[in-house]
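Archive transcription. Copying these from loose printouts into the bound notebook so they stop getting lost. Printout 1 of 2:
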Amino acid sequence: MARAYGANASLLAAFETTYGSNPVGDYWKLPFVSTTLGSEQGLIANDLIGLGRDPSAPIRDVIKVEGDIVVPIDVRNIGIWLKALLGNATASGSGVVTHTFTSGKPSLPSLTLETGLPDIPAWFVASGVMVNSLQVGFARSGAANATVGLIAQGEAKRAATLDATPASRDLIRFNQFQGSIKQGGAALGNVVSAQLTYSNNLERIETIRSDGKIDGADPTVASLTGNLEVRFADTTLIDAATNNTPLELTFGYAIDADRRLTFIAHEVYLPKPKLSISGPGGIQATFEWQAAKAAGVARMFTVELVNDVISY
C-alpha cells in the first residue's frame, strides 16, 4: 500500500477568471515549505431528547477551507503571492523589470491551488482561494520564508491533476543574510530581529447555500503591523515613540541590483516599550509597530520586486 510523503507533494496555482471556477490549463508549479490548507467540516452535537440517554447521530456543520502555506521568498515565484495579496502590479523596464505592488485596491484576484499527492494518488483542488495575509520575518541567518494565510471557497479531491505539464520558473532563493532594514533610507542599526504582517482582513460572505460553501471573501480595512527587536544603543526609536513621530521603514532582500525585493511601510507608528534589565547582559527593547496610510504617497504599503519576469 502506497503512503503519501511530503517529498513527493506538488503545488500548482493559477489565477481564476471567475471566482471559484478552476482555470483550464496554464498552471504554475510553485515551491513551498509546508501547507495546512484544506477543508474541514465539524460536527454539532444532536440536541434531541426523549429518545433515551444515548445521543442521536451528530449534525454536520458548514465546510471551511482555509489554512497557511509557508513559501520561500525567492526572486521569481514570490510575485504570484504578492499579486494575490495586493492585486496587479505596475511593471517597468525590459530585461530587468521592476514590479510595483501597492496596497489599497478595492478588489483582489482569486486563485485555484492544487496540492498533489501522487503516491496515493490524489489531488486536492482548492477553488476561490484568496490571500488574507502575508507574514515575513527577518533574522541574522537562515532561509527567508513567508507565511501566506489563505481562505478558500471549496475543495475537491480529484483522481488526476488539473495540469500534467505546468509551467515553472527557476528558483533563486533569498537568504536572511541578504536582508536589510532601513529607516528613512538609512540603515537602522542594532536590530536583532524583525517581523511584518500585512493582512487584507477578509470578510467571509456566509450566505445560505446547499453546498455549505461561502459566497466569497471580501477585503475590508487592511492592516500592516510588525515588531522590531533592537539592542538599546541610542534613543532614536524611543524618542519617535515618545513623540508619536511616524517613520518610514523599509525591509528588503537583495542578491544584486537586478534581483531585489523591498517592503516599504510608509508611515509607521511606534509604541513606547518598557525597558527591562534582567542581568548584566545587553539590554533589548521590542517595538510592536503599526502602519497607516501616508498622505504623501496615498497608500500604506508598497512592495517592489526586481527580476527578469515580464509580468504576473
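Printout 2 of 2:
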Amino acid sequence: MENRTARLTLLVDPIKKQIFEEICTRRDLTSSQVVRQMIRDYVQQYGTPEQLARMPVHD
C-alpha cells in the first residue's frame, strides 16, 4: 500500500474555527497536527481490532 496523505474537507462554524486556530497557535501546533491527533485518538478508542491492525506504526 502506498504511504500517501489524503485531504479531509469539513465545514466548521467560523467562530469555532477562529478559536480553535488561536488555541493551536498558543500551543505551537498547526490545526492539521491537532486534527490528525484527534483522528488517531478516535480510531484508537472506537476502532475494531481489525481496523487497528491496519493502522500505520508511524503516523
